[in-house]
Write a structure and sequence with these properties.
By secondary structure, this protein is of the alpha/beta class. 41% of the residues lie in helices and 17% in strands. The longest helix is centred in the first third of the chain and has 26 residues. The protein is globular and about 80 Å long.
Length: 532
């Protein structure tokens, strides 16, 4: 292995300015994440505790192995929308009885845990991660069902939740429901479709229709316990597999269930005793320029993420705007593709396609480190075949079957986002640094394009062009696109799986690599037609 040598000057004024800018972004992120942790606020948290109930995160913490990390996913879901940050549910990956699991936990302090459109998206993403990576799925259930005023956005796509549970079970991936409170109406099918069901005495309520609706529909008088209580389901209906005396007992039983799964990872095991990087992770705070138009060397990131800072670069003299090579991360072999100077030329695209093929031949997962403005444009590059070469790279990314992980370190614009395995290309997990931006193109470029088109349209019709209106339009569009390209906005829409502190990159990727190796790692046997 070749050991990378760092040239980063941590004493420079530029480094200090970049570090201050990143710390400011992290402070903003902490403020937004605190909103999700706060749930429904002090009043509803206090009421929940007074009822002798645990909060969603308290349930998760007790479920996890002592000291085990919890990789929370989509923490900023619903940011910038009319719904609370976090979307009234906690989701993430953590070890339970030594088994890595996807865990979802309803937050009943937020509108009774009712599911809004962002809750649904967050649940579906968690289900997708469980299925792709062969991770048992544990649901900590207490929800009032659908947020009825938004039913038009939930009802039709919401059926996928139930379909996902059956597909997980059919794939041999265990699904476990720990029911702490209400799981009614459509929510009754969550325990109904789970492999294992635990219900808490005098707390769990599972029925298709509650007493008021039963009264209206049939005239029958009923009560919660006889209609859908835990004891009834444990003794009579058989829906409950386990009858828990209280919440802690339910969590104990849940851990016991996982411990009896006889679970085995199907992917290769990591190399023992991985060596940490030779350079500190704190350096990553000042590495990325505050102005994303200024390039930086991604080898400096790689040197602070991979084992021993060892990196065997592939084709270093060809297509130098894209760094490719081999390394280990927490003992797992990986192939890395990292943008060096933003723009992808034909050489970079061809180099990437070949490298992706080699990784698939070697059954080696791929890590994409994004900082790209897209593929190069202009007459010279069009004539040289940039379209077909970009298509070559996108073809390779699309049909690669080894696991992909993506980290957006800076810019991620245009088709470069696609070629570097953005959300649409199915990375197993995708994380973003707080400074990152992503859009179809940069705000100034997009506003400029609209201005040119509008001016040409006016000239074609023989009309005078209003330059003052054009200035206002450009300013408005630029401000809008800038706001919509920021990391919190994108994360709020689940275009990533979470915004992470750059210093945590190695740890987060290590957890992700361990999780994806629950499933087999197998490269592609074929690709679409390459236009050469």
């Amino acid at each position: 292995m070749t050991v990378l040598t760092s040239a980063l000057d941590t004493t420079s004024a530029d480094y200090a300015a970049n570090r201050d800018a990143m710390l400011a972004k992290l402070a903003e992120l902490d403020t937004e994440q605190a909103k999700a942790v706060a749930g429904g606020g002090e009043k509803y948290v206090a009421r929940h505790h007074q009822r002798g109930k645990l909060l969603a995160r308290e349930r998760v913490e007790l479920l996890l192995d002592p000291g085990a990390p919890f990789l929370e996913l989509s923490a900023l879901a619903a940011w910038g929308s009319d719904f609370p940050v976090g979307a009234s549910i906690v989701s993430g990956i953590g070890a339970v009885s030594g088994v890595e699991c996807v865990i979802t936990a309803s937050d009943p302090t937020v509108r009774g845990g009712a599911s809004n459109p962002w809750t649904l998206r967050k649940i579906l993403r968690a289900n997708e991660i469980a299925l792709q990576n062969r991770l048992p799925l544990i649901g900590l259930v207490e929800s009032g069902g659908a947020d009825l005023p938004t039913q038009k956005e939930i009802f039709i796509p919401g059926g996928q939740m139930f379909r996902d549970l059956t597909r997980l079970s059919a794939a041999g991936i265990p699904t476990i429901a720990l029911v702490f409170g209400n799981s009614t109406a459509g929510g009754a099918y969550i325990p109904g479709l789970s492999d294992y069901v635990v219900m808490v005495k005098e707390r769990a309520k599972v029925f298709l229709a509650g007493p008021p609706l039963v009264k209206m529909a049939t005239g029958e008088e009923s009560d919660d316990e006889s209609l859908g209580g835990a004891e009834m389901h444990a003794r009579q209906s058989g829906l409950a597999d386990y009858f828990a005396l209280d919440e802690r007992d339910a969590i104990r039983i849940g851990r016991q269930i996982v411990g009896r799964l006889n679970w085995r990872k199907l992917g290769p095991t990591p190399k023992p005793a991985p060596v940490p990087p030779r350079y500190g992770e704190d350096d990553l705070l000042g590495l990325v320029p505050a102005d994303l138009r200024v390039p930086f060397d991604p080898r400096e990131v790689i040197a602070r993420v991979v084992d021993g800072s060892e990196f065997d670069e592939f084709k270093p003299l060809y297509g130098s705007s894209l760094v490719t090579g081999w390394a280990d991360l927490h003992g797992y072999p990986i192939g890395i593709l990292a943008n060096a100077r933003g723009v992808l030329f034909s050489e970079e695209a061809q180099k990437a396609a070949q490298f992706i093929q080699l990784a698939n031949r070697a059954d080696t997962p791929l890590l994409f480190l994004q900082n790209t403005t897209g593929y190069m444009v202009g007459t010279e590059y069009e004539q040289a075949g940039i379209i077909k070469h970009g298509a070559l790279m996108i073809n390779a990314v699309s049909n690669s079957t080894v696991p992909h992980l993506t980290v957006t370190m800076g810019a991620s614009y245009g088709a470069g986002n696609y070629g570097m395995c953005g959300r649409a290309y199915g990375p197993r997990l995708l994380f973003t640094w707080p400074n990152a931006k992503s859009a179809v193109m940069g705000p100034a470029q997009l506003a400029g394009v609209l201005s040119i088109v509008a001016r040409q349209s006016a000239e074609a019709r023989g009309l005078a062009y209003d330059d003052d209106a054009d200035t206002q339009m450009r300013q408005y569009v630029q401000s809008q696109i800038e706001a919509e390209s920021l990391a919190p906005f994108l994360s709020g829409r689940l275009y990533d799986d979470g915004i992470i502190d750059p210093r945590d990159t190695r740890t987060v990727l290590g957890i992700a690599l361990s999780a994806i190796h629950n499933a087999p790692v197998k490269g592609a046997d074929g690709y679409g037609v390459f236009r050469l």
